[in-house]
């Protein structure tokens, strides 16, 4: 094979054939593996209903000639024959081959399905990289395929790829800044996406992060092949109330950028108006540059970024914005900027400077958590501290959440963290006069402990 998909097709066929041979008495399953490859590649190509000559030539060069019988035609004849039409539906259900592997893993605890996942996703991304600009439908198809495989693994209680180690990353509710000297070991994209998947709620945010990740992976593949690429902005606007996971997602995103070599280090620096704006003429630019330079090689999260434009024409915040825009241009290849705040206020900020509007082209909306999601977050916080709610206390927690006004600035995860911390204090007072409390008493939160803050 000599086409653009060669190494990915070969890796899939060789790797999966070895696993299938080990599960059967057959000497080889290579013909079935090439059919599987044909389905994966064909489904991604079909996703946008636009089969280009480059895409069809890649399929013919690296796949068609290995099928039985071989498909040896021109791209135009392949298109006219409609052989790849309707293939995208194949991504919505686990294939027979994947089902065989995942069921074998369920029996013996091996990771064959993980191997399939890794090789198939690499092949899918390489397919989308054939054309200069992968379509949104192709990116969406890859995400659908990933979801199909992961759901099948979950259904069979098989470990997902990149099963996260909590020791390697901060918990989803930890708002501490990651300093450069505390940078965790570099992790794979699949590890980081597994952490993303584990976050409570945020379904739309997760989808958008996965799609951005796929787009960046595809551009990286084209760079490795010395093919032309398009510039993909990695500056984002996060909108939503406090405590909706913006810092957590920014931290994961900074590590994803690191794994994809978008940035060189992968640390996260947190900033706000007070850390960027000075009180005297000429000092703001210096102060802002100092913060931004500390973020080189990583990501800077500017919380309540709209506050930079709140002081009027003579306010030094506008100087900070101008400095930020220039810095983003000068260091576009080694820094990512995430500007966070309330939706309306952030829209007003972006409109204050044409440079901001041209650089922040992607906005992720972080919705308030639902009642059930807030209860799940409370349970997550409490389990990490070895506490748990009894059933009446859980019902009481739901009542406390329902009674909290969902006004502008509702605290979400921060609110339930405060409820938890207060509950622990209430429990301590309740047990103060108990001479020798049992482990169950020390770890159980009851109705009397759960009150509004």
Characterize the structure shown:
- The protein has 453 residues and is an alpha/beta fold.
- It is 54% helix and 6% strand.
- The chain contains 19 helices and 7 strands.
- The chain has helices spanning 6-23, 30-46, 53-62, 75-81, 96-108, 112-128, 136-155, 189-198, 203-224, 246-259, 273-276, 283-294, 317-330, 343-351, 354-359, 371-384, 391-403, 413-430, 439-443; strands spanning 236-240, 268-271, 299-302, 336-341, 362-366, 388-389, 444-445.
- The protein has a 5-stranded parallel beta sheet with strand order 2-3-4-1-5, sandwiched between helices. The chain has a two-stranded parallel ribbon with strand order 6-7.
- Helix 1 (6-23) packs across helix 2.
- It is flat, with a radius of gyration of 26 Å.
- The relative contact order is 0.08.
- The model is unreliable at 164-181 (pLDDT under 50).
Content-based structural category = alpha/beta
Report the end-to-end length measured between terminal Cα atoms. 66 Å
Low-confidence stretches: 164-181
Shape: flat
Q: Give the topology string: H per helix, E per strand.
A: HHHHHHHHHEHEHHEHEHHEHEHHHE
Spatial ordering of strands, largest sheet: 2-3-4-1-5
Write the layout of secondary structure elements.
Elements: H1 6-23, H2 30-46, H3 53-62, H4 75-81, H5 96-108, H6 112-128, H7 136-155, H8 189-198, H9 203-224, E1 236-240, H10 246-259, E2 268-271, H11 273-276, H12 283-294, E3 299-302, H13 317-330, E4 336-341, H14 343-351, H15 354-359, E5 362-366, H16 371-384, E6 388-389, H17 391-403, H18 413-430, H19 439-443, E7 444-445
Parallel strand pairs: 1-4, 1-5, 2-3, 3-4, 6-7
Helix pairs in contact: 1-2, 1-6, 2-6, 2-7, 3-4, 6-7, 7-9, 8-10, 12-13, 16-17, 16-18
């Amino acid at each position: 094979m000599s086409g653009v998909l060669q190494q990915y097709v070969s890796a899939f066929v060789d790797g999966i054939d070895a696993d299938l041979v080990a599960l059967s008495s057959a000497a080889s399953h290579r013909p079935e593996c090439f059919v599987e490859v044909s389905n994966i590649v064909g489904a991604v190509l079909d996703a946008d209903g636009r089969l280009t000559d480059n895409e069809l030539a890649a399929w013919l060069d690296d796949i068609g000639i290995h099928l039985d019988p071989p498909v040896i035609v021109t791209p135009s004849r392949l298109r006219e024959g409609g052989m790849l039409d309707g293939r995208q539906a194949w991504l919505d259900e686990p294939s027979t081959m994947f089902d065989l592997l995942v069921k074998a893993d369920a029996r013996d605890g091996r990771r064959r399905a993980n191997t399939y996942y890794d090789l198939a996703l690499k092949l899918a991304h390489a397919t989308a990289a054939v054309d200069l600009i992968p379509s949104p439908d192709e990116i969406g198809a890859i995400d659908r395929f990933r979801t199909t495989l992961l759901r099948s693994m979950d259904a069979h209680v098989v470990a997902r790829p990149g099963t996260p180690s909590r020791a390697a990353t901060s918990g989803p509710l930890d708002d501490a800044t990651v300093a450069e000297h505390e940078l965790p070991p570099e992790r794979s994209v699949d590890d980081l996406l597994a952490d993303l998947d584990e976050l409570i709620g945020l379904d739309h945010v997760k989808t958008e992060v996965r799609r951005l990740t796929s787009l960046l992976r595809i551009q990286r593949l084209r760079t490795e092949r010395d093919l032309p690429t398009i510039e993909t902005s990695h500056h984002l606007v996060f909108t939503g109330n406090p405590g909706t996971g913006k810092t957590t997602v920014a931290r994961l995103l900074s590590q994803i950028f690191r794994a994809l070599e978008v940035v060189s280090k992968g640390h996260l620096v947190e900033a706000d108006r007070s850390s960027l704006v000075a009180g005297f003429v000429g000092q703001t630019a210096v102060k802002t540059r100092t913060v931004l330079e500390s973020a080189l090689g990583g990501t800077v999260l500017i919380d309540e970024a709209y506050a930079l434009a709140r002081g009027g024409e003579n306010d030094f915040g506008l100087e900070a914005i101008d400095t930020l825009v220039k810095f983003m241009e000068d260091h576009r290849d080694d820094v990512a900027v995430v500007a966070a705040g309330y939706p309306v206020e952030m829209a007003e900020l972006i409109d204050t400077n044409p440079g901001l509007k041209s650089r922040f082209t992607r906005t992720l909306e972080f919705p308030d958590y639902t009642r059930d999601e807030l209860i799940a977050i409370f349970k997550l916080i409490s389990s990490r501290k070895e506490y748990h709610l009894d059933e009446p206390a859980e019902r009481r927690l739901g009542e406390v959440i329902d009674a909290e006004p969902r006004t502008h600035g509702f605290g979400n995860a921060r609110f339930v963290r405060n409820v938890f911390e207060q509950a622990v204090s209430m429990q301590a007072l309740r047990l103060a006069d108990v001479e020798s409390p049992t482990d169950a008493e020390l770890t159980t939160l009851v109705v009397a402990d759960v009150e509004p803050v």
